[in-house]
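The pair is set out directly below:
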Amino acid sequence: MYRRILAVALGLLAISPATLAQTPTQDETRAALDKALTAMAGQQRNGGWGNSVTVDGSALRGEHDLIASDWITLQPPATPKVAGVFLRAARLLGSDPWEGVVMKARDAIMALQTEEGGFPHEGDPAAHSHRSGTFDDDTTTACINFLLDWAQYSEKPGALDPVTRGAAFIEAAQYHCGGWPQYFPPPRRGYQRDVTLNDNVMRNVIFTLLRLHREPVIAGTLECAKRGGECLIRLQGGEGERIWAQQYDPDTLEPSWARKFEPPGYSPAESVGACDALIELYLETGEDRFLAPLPDAFAWYDDESHRLPNGKFARLYEPGTHRPVYGRRDVAEKVYDFANATGGYGWQAEWYPHAAKAAYDRIQEIGRDAYLEERAAARAVQPTAASLAERATQAIAAMNADGLWIEHATEEEQKFLSTAGHDPDVDMIPSGLFCKHAGALLDYYEALQREQEDGK
């Protein structure tokens, strides 16, 4: 396969900012795509990718810290997202050689699927790890969605089997209350057993279940998603705190501590995903109960008394007192002065459920059926090449001579590299940067191709 990839690389057009036209031509865009895909295929090891790798290939970063060279990362934006870019390239540019890259990634992802059907953050595909699967950071749900994309592309017998196992994992992991822990099987102690909204766990799981229902692929996923929505309704805060916490004790359903620096608190950050999930459940089912919590949630965001003096929201508001609350890194201790909060965490920002609020208002104006028709029509409108040209131009300009998109190691990566005895002053190849720029080029190339076929 890599001989074919090398042949593609040798036939590339020379692409550089100096030679690039003001807007890339279709040939220039195709050449840039082939160059970038060839370069990233060369970074594939043991079927997958890490979250980033040093340019010399000596150190690989996983979920957080460095991982062994024969491990891969399933936490997005690593293997399932990178493989998704190659799958899209196989559809758009032709299957050879990109389909082979995708198949290796699919095999590696399947090798890491746990006995219960979930997926870990990372692991060695050759070792057939059977650790707990995790919903954290979109890991299991991203793998399920990629495997479904692959099954629909390949139409091969048995291609849906790992997707079915993934759906069974979601159903088995669901608590009686309707929520999900961060890990399954959950540990006996620790925040990983809590009902989790943090990092959009509930949103991602419900969205994945709804997709499996709509395709349709797996029976029973709508009921599972509805139980998740019922849990969100039950967990909404009371008077003065009508949003949602980051995590809840699965027995008492009260907001709970997570990591030492994350005290119990209602979170405008994670409540955005809860609002999104409730909107989608209503649109799928037509059941008004899923809309009922939203006016109070929107009113909480619109209440200026909840904003900090700098105009932002705090990430956490203490249950009962509604005070902004922060945490220390080294000890489970609440602090109320932001100056005493641990660094390296997004304690304050401008969070707001804009998409859910716009959808809710429009639904109230025209009704569910008309809204669904309007949304479907809007999604059917294809972007023009002209509207995508700037992002494509930037992607090509940012590519180095080897076809890679690189960034200097972040402060966190430098710490990991230094601790492991590596030179921290290095450039990295981030998987997320590849997904961003390669996705922009694919968007632009597809638009150019479509307009050419339409005779524009």
